[in-house]
Amino acid sequence: MREVINAKDKKPAITKEQLFKTCDKYFEQHDKEPSQQIIIALIGGSAGTVGPLLQEWKEKKENDEQAILLMPDHIRDGGMTIIATWWQSIQPTINDMIAAAQKLADEKVSTAQEKCKDVIADQVWLEKENGKLETTAVEYQQQIEALELQLAKSQSTYDKERTGKEKANVKLARVEGQRDTLKQLIAQYKT
Does a structural domain hold residue 103? Predict the structure, then answer.
């Protein structure tokens, strides 16, 4: 009977890169190729996964070693001489390119620093102007409040005067009514 293995009990699959790195490290430390069992013990995996990847690593290692062994010393040394000569011939050009790039970078940094100084100066000026505007806004707000208070007083005075005028008009109308009544009485008395 087969056992059911939960997904959380399974080890994650190993990658070709993991196996190659592990094999290279093992070979550097022990100066011999690792076995399939050693790789499984170190990083896990199954024989079905580790076996083919380990074989691929061994073939790659043999091909790399063969390429190094097949190159005769005089060619390898001649190649190094060619590379050294080529390096010496392009070195002045590379140095000029580096110097030009450094000069350009320095100029850009200098320009950026100047712009930064200008921006900081502008920010300081704007903050001062903002402070002035805030002070002016407070002064205007105080003037508005004073004018609103004065308007309220004037409105109150106007209302009082209007009320007084209306009372006077009512009183005048009453007095005029009494006068007219008296005139009628006088006119009746005379007749």
Answer: no
| pLDDT confidence bin for 64, thresholds 50/70/90 | confident
pLDDT tens-digit series, residues 137-151: 899 999 999 999 999
157-169: per-residue pLDDT in tens?
888 888 888 888 8
Q: Which helix (H) or strand (E) holds 56?
A: helix 47-70
Cβ-based neighbour number of residue 54 at 10 Å: 23
Residue 190 forms part of a structural domain: no
The number of residues making up the chain comes to 191
Total number of domains in the chain: 1
Rounded CA-CA distance 59/67 in Å is 12
Taking a C-beta distance cutoff of 8 angstroms, is the pair 21, 3 a contact? no
Q: Which two tokens stand for residue 143?
A: 């003037």
